[in-house]
Amino acid sequence: MTLGRDGVKRETTFTERVYRRNGEVWTERLIPAEAAVEAEHDHAGHNHPDAGSSPMWVRRQADGSLDARLVERHQRRTVKVDPQYYGNIGFNGNWGSIFYLSDPQSLKKMRAVGAVSNGVQNYESKRGDVTVRVSWDVKGQYPRRVESSDTHGHVRRETRVTLIEAPNPLPWKTLAGYADVDYSDLLD
Asked: For the chain, what are the domain ranges?
């Protein structure tokens, strides 16, 4: 939620599914049926990847480098994205952020609030007029909730995480026969 100087309050809500296994993460926005129909019409003859609605698949290589790809099911292709274009697809290039949803290293810079309760350790940090709160699942190694807000009530972000069962097969196991293209080849 943002409240602009013009007095207009803007709220954005969306749901994503994230599947993770050793060295691989799949993030996919859930698109409502009515939006999916509209998107199909938008893609007719369209060659640019849609980072908002295309699943993102990131693999951590043995040397620590990342292989980030958008998956375009309608064109049956994966689009390899080099690090200089990560910002274009909404990825900050941080493995901790994508795999854990909130980089565990950032917790070291935060103040633990209370003791672990029901498997959750709460953390908080303040920087200027912004407060960030994280409810960290100690066993599962993910944030159950992350909230950031400013003291003026102009900006508030909240992420809530619920565990779900992984599909069988995992999504990246269903890409046989997909073409591989490079993101930079699709730029104008």
From this structure: 10-100+165-188, 102-160
